[in-house]
Amino acid sequence: MSDRPTPTPTTQIAVQALGQDYVFPHRIDGLPDRLSDFDDLEIGHFTTGDGVRLAYWAAGQGEPLILLPGWSSNGAEFIHVLYLLRAHRRVYVLDPRNQGLSEHVEHGCRIARFAVDLKEFADHLGLAQAEYCGWSMGAAVLWARIELFGLQGMRKLVFIDEPPSIYAHADWSEQERMEAGGMTSSIERMVAAFTAGLPVHCLVVDLHSMARFGMRDSLAFDNAVSFVSAVIRNDPKALARVLFDHAANDWRDVIRHKIRGVPVAIFSGEQSHALPSQRWMQQQIPGAVLHVYSEAEQGDHFLAIKNPFQFTRDLLAFLA
Q1: Is the whole model's pTM more than 0.90, yes or no?
Q2: Are the C-beta atoms of residues 71 and 240 closer than 8 Å to each other?
Q3: Segments making up each domain of the chain, as ranges
Q4: Mean pLDDT computed over every residue of the chain
Q5: What is the CATH topology of the domain spanning 12-319?
Q6: Which residues, by range, are in coiled-coil regions (predicted)?
């Protein structure tokens, strides 16, 4: 059996693909009032080498930029970022398997396979070169892609607030935990808390990001999350399949040794538990640029979605 992606039909305009229009709850100058105002947003699909149908969101013209969402996230959550970037780039957001509009399956639910999916996606699009931006788990997928295939075809890299190691080993010093970004001492308890809402305290799992998610302190963020709720049907059991593998990985060796010769930008915030690890990453990657957003700038784990205007300005300045 061939391991090459299978060609698929042309993308559809988002309103047609979703079978509905959507009115955003908050009117924001410079952003669409409804989905149909974003008339060049497309949704497409392709089939991976192991037979999984993945969805992607696309808009704009120009140099290609691939955005990778975090765990449980999808292209709908990046609706405003896509809208603002489309005048400058041909932008794609790939929904990982079991997330967004992509197929729910039991196989291949590990970061290494997600990295293969990403490479097959670029091959499907015929991209010899592209810029890549990974948020949260999406950054880990980029690190796995670099580990497996090297930096070939990756013009510039952007990592948004992802700890190199979510699991904090019992024999680490506090300094090592901070540099690695460790946020749980029990991956099983973390998975149960994140997917089933089971109780857990902060000494077992750092719940700061979940608390910040619940703070609808940005109109753009509330628009994006409301849109996701209207068009995406998440299955907690499907989302749980990759989370254990994601949390168990330690990417510090890739960051120390394998990201060289490519421009890198890192985004984090004063209200992110991962900030010390992002500073450590900047020190390890030659020439890396670190953007740290203040609390007033929505500087937490969701900074790109909560503050899409500033994020897209800073991102485009780096890419330019």
Answers
A1: yes
A2: no
A3: 12-319
A4: 95
A5: Rossmann fold (3.40.50)
A6: none
